[in-house]
Amino acid sequence: MGESSGITFRVIGGGQEVGANCFQITVNGQSILLDCGTHPKKEGLAALPRFSLLEKPPKVLMLSHAHVDHCGAIPYLTRMYPGVRAFATLPTVRIMDRMLHNSVAVMGTIAKERGITEYPLYEHRDVNFAMRRVMGYDFGVSFLLPLATPVEACFHPAGHVLGSASILLKINGHNFLYTSDICGVDQELMGRHAPFAGMPAIDTLVIESTHGATDESRILPFRQEAERLGEAISKVIACGGSVLVPTFALGRTQEILNIIARLQEEGQVPAVPVYTSGLGRAIYELYDRFTEYLAPGARLRPLEQFGRIGNVWEARVVQRLLAHPSILVATSGMMLANTPSAMIAREMVREKRHGIFFVGYLDSETLGYALCTAPPGTPLQFGLNQPPVKVALENIQRFSFSAHAPRTTLKELVETINPRNVIYVHGDPAAITWMKTAGSNGRRAWTPEIGHEVALES
Ligand SMILES: [Zn+2]
Ligand SMILES: [Zn+2]
């Protein structure tokens, strides 16, 4: 139960897991939600945050960025609680609009093909309503939230993807910082996070723990990894093959396209055509619209430089693309079945001359992971209700371009910010445990699961 006075923090989703991120702060009986995502590994209603824990309608929703594990459940929430007011950075508002409408389409397809009757969880009209409840602010601008108790909010650059923010709340003299997803290195387009530039002393820090269980030596410097990818691509092209790079639509697609473009300009990768698809292109347009949010000196190439992949559900379209050496950058990053990257891979894996290079996180239950680990000749199913295809292709590699900070950076961040309270979220149990053990250093520290409540002032 939330106390009538004091400040409490409760996990509605995303505690001890990388899931449907949603955290509730209650102050004088009124509540603020931080993020409202869907769980990437769950389906139907189970993918939502545990909204049944909300005892009364939340007043305010603060959004850190537009990845669906942070924003995918907003239209469901605003349909349940139409009075909630939401706030995000200006680019995030525009990106969310595209991501959420895309989610409606994806859920509709899954509903049809797999008979999941709970899908879609919301319709296009729910997305339109939700977007009318969201207001955009720039980084570094303080504004008052519409609550009885004065709470001042401010977004700070998190360096993760376009528009991504850490959120600072000043609640009755208690300074609260939610890092959300942060990146500690300069990427090709995004500059590293700066969440504590000009920041007051922090009482409570809520910090992501994605890489808490990842040894730093496994995360290579961004530039070095870009060169390694370039070399691998060049080898394939030299042998007359094509390369597929499966990518997430928001962030990785835009970063990888510009890495490849730079390597081609520098002569490190042959100047073959580069193609990309659907949602990644739509979000690229927003990167182009908000270039002032990219790292100083970042060079975003014109989208027209990259060809359209076309209708990948027609095998002939893919075969035509593969007839000449080319580079294809397509969603989804983990190659979920029946997505553009899976449909392209279905044709590629029949031959040995090509290469498939994964550049992001791969869950062990995905087609992408199976493709990386299965012995040659294993039959795999790339589309729903389609016969499996025997994998002849051997050149399948993984590269690590994380947009999340390594654990030593996270640990240093806790030390630099030096909060009284620290709460670890957004990581699997092993990651969260490492963070708490290595990073807390005598502070009050919590690793709450879904439903757990923490009293911040005591
Ligand atoms: Zn993210
Ligand atoms: Zn996340």
Would you write up a description of this structure?
There is one protein chain. The chain has 458 residues and is α/β, with parallel strands linked by helices. It contains 12 helices and 22 strands. It has helices at 68-71, 74-80, 90-114, 124-132, 222-238, 252-265, 278-289, 315-322, 340-348, 367-373, 407-417, 429-439, and strands spanning 7-13, 22-27, 30-34, 60-62, 85-89, 134-137, 143-144, 151-157, 165-171, 174-178, 204-208, 243-246, 274-276, 307-308, 327-330, 355-358, 379-380, 389-390, 396-398, 421-425, 444-446, 453-455. Strands 6-5-4-3-2-1-22 form a 7-stranded mixed β-sheet. Helix 7 (278-289) links the parallel strand 13 and strand 14 (307-308). Helix 2 crosses helix 4, helix 3 (90-114) packs antiparallel against helix 4 (124-132) and helix 8 (315-322) crosses helix 9. It is globular and about 65 Å long. The mean pLDDT is 94. Bound molecules: zinc ion (2 copies). One zinc ion binds at residues 67, 69-70, 181, 426. Residues 67, 69-70, 181, 426 line the site of one zinc ion.
Strand order of the largest sheet: 6-5-4-3-2-1-22
What gyration radius follows from the Cα positions, in whole Å? 22 Å
- The chain-level structural class is alpha/beta
How much helical structure, as a percent, in the residues? 25-40%
Mean pLDDT: 94
Taking pLDDT < 50 over at least 5 consecutive residues as the criterion, the unreliable ranges are none
Q: Major β-sheet, in short?
A: 7 strands, mixed
Shape: globular
Query: N-to-C terminal Cα separation, in Å?
Result: 16 Å
Count of beta strands? 22
- The helix count comes to 12
Bound molecules: zinc ion
Beta-strand proportion: 15-25%
